[in-house]
Amino acid sequence: MKQDEAGWVVRILDQSGASEGDDDVVEEVKGFFDLAHANAFARAYVRDSIERCRVPGAADRDVLQSWFAFGENAEVVDAGEDGWKSSTELDDFVSSPATPMECDWRALDPRRLVSDEELAGPPDEDGQDDDDDEAFVAEVIRRRQNGQQ
Fold first, then answer.
1. What is the pLDDT of residue 129?
2. Most exposed of 20, 32, 74, 103 (fewest Cβ within 10 Å)?
3. Which of 95, 1, 110 is nearest to 45 (CA)?
4. Sign, CA torsion 54/22/111/79
């Protein structure tokens, strides 16, 4: 097994053959933390694709034919036998409609994740970090409780 320098990569494949080039690759999603994260994303992505191909009252074989004609597959690049494969769950996906949570690949998309630096925001004007601010506030509260100004 090997992974990209930026983490694991999931390749999205167009089942219809309408994508440019011979490889049917629509896009490659990069930056997964670990193989389990990449596998979960690929699984949810395919599950969602199958649900978009499902129409009310359609037989299982019709859903499957529609997915092969219009859907998108996903594979974890260079994961070998440890990578999730749609072929292992395709029959179950087709025969059992998914819940919204099972299709929520967007929640797993590493492009939507926020880094710790982004969460911290810009530096304070006084040059102190948030830990210093919290210590200062705690000191002010302690002094006021003791009757000091």
1. 57
2. 20
3. 110
4. positive
How many Cα atoms within 13 Å fall on the side-chain side of residue 144? 6
Residues 6+ apart with CB under 8 A from 60: 91, 94, 95
Structural tokens at position 106: 């967007």
The DSSP secondary-structure symbol of 86 reads G
What's the residue count for the chain? Answer: 149
d(CA 144, CA 140): 6
> Left if phi > 0, otherwise alpha if psi is -120 to 50, otherwise beta: which for 73?
beta
C-alpha span between 68 and 64 (Å, rounded): 6
Query: What whole-number distance in Å separates Cα of residue 105 and Cα of residue 148?
Result: 54
CA–centroid distance for 149 within its chain: 51
Where is average pLDDT lowest: 10-24, 79-93, 121-135? 121-135
pTM over 0.90: no
Q: Dump the DSSP string for 62-83.
A: HHHHHHHHH-EEEEETT-GGGS
Contact (CB, 8 A) for 9 and 29: yes
DSSP 104: -
**How far, in Å, CA of 98 to CA of 120, rounded?**
37
